[in-house]
Write a structure and sequence with these properties.
Layout (H helix, E strand, L loop, with lengths): L4 E3 H7 L5 H9 L3 E3 L2 E2 L6 E3 L4 H4 E3 L2 E2 L7 E6 L30 E2 L7 E8 L2 H8 L7 E7 L7 H6 L16 E4 L4 E6 L6 H8 L4 E9 L2 E2 L9 E3 L2 H7 L7
Parallel strand pairs: 9-13
Antiparallel strand pairs: 1-4, 2-3, 2-5, 5-6, 7-9, 7-15, 8-9, 10-12, 10-13, 11-12, 13-14
Helix pairs in contact: 1-2
Length: 248
């Protein structure tokens, strides 16, 4: 397959470094270096190879990874997963220029403001739709902390695939509950309905006081990734989402 190419000024503008005019000024100032040599022509076409961040520098720093870009994020409490929702945004955890990237970075599904844990952010539309598609049945696991003790009936109710949430008409897909104590449990679901986990427990007369997602498919939240931190995914990370018995 032929390696795609892109004009230097368009590439850097798409990565959020500035307008094409501003990139041209950076080139004229000698700030763009490829393989140790300063680039002189903002219209030069560059092969978009995966090793570009290792070979190319802007102002002395490695160039940001070109698309497709996917991040693993440890979402902290009190952060929203939207560009438009009021409050501190998950995107504020990333380099500021990344908010100007094209294609735009988006979360793969959302965690509400009071939920913490594993979140994926990507500019890869195909990956996003593959993960959230109901047909994929990618499992998401949550650690739930409850206001009242479990009754002992919840696991059977959630597994039956017959629970209908308030305001809806279609029953939820079967979900797996694994109690850890009288008020804590793992809950694994394959859907992503609005506030689904909280509404499921509300339907059986309980209230979620803390919610943390630690797994998507076969991808676990890295133990060494602190709250508010992020890292680039590897090809192995992405494959694990759909691998093994963690994905139906």
């Amino acid at each position: 397959m032929k390696t795609p190419t892109m004009r230097l000024d368009r590439l850097l503008a798409n990565l959020g470094y500035g307008s094409r005019r501003e990139v041209g000024q950076m080139v004229a100032a000698g700030l763009i270096v490829l393989d140790g040599a300063r680039l002189r022509d903002p219209g030069e076409r560059l092969p978009l190879t995966t090793d570009l961040p290792e070979r190319m520098h802007v102002g002395g720093a490695p160039i940001d990874p070109p698309p497709p870009l996917t991040l693993i994020v440890h979402k902290p409490l009190g952060v929203v997963c939207s560009h438009r929702e009021p409050g501190r945004s998950i995107y504020e955890l990333l380099p500021q220029r990344w908010r100007r990237r094209e294609p735009t970075l988006s979360t793969i599904g959302r965690l509400d403001v009071d939920t913490t844990g594993l979140l994926l952010i990507t500019d890869d539309g195909a990956l996003l739709h593959r993960v959230i598609s109901p047909r994929a049945k990618v499992r998401k696991r949550y650690l739930t902390t409850l206001d009242r003790p479990l009754s002992g009936q919840e696991a059977a109710i959630f597994a039956a695939g017959e629970l209908v949430l308030e305001g809806e008409t279609e029953a939820l897909a079967p979900a797996m509950l694994e109690p850890l104590s009288s008020t804590t449990a793992w809950l694994t679901i394959t859907e992503g309905r609005y506030h689904q986990v909280r509404r499921m427990f509300a339907a059986v007369g309980n209230h979620v006081v803390a919610l943390h997602r630690d797994r998507i498919g076969g991808l676990d939240l890295p133990a060494d990734l602190g709250s508010g931190e992020w890292r680039l995914t590897t090809s192995e990370n992405l494959a694990s989402i759909f691998a093994g018995d963690h994905a139906a």
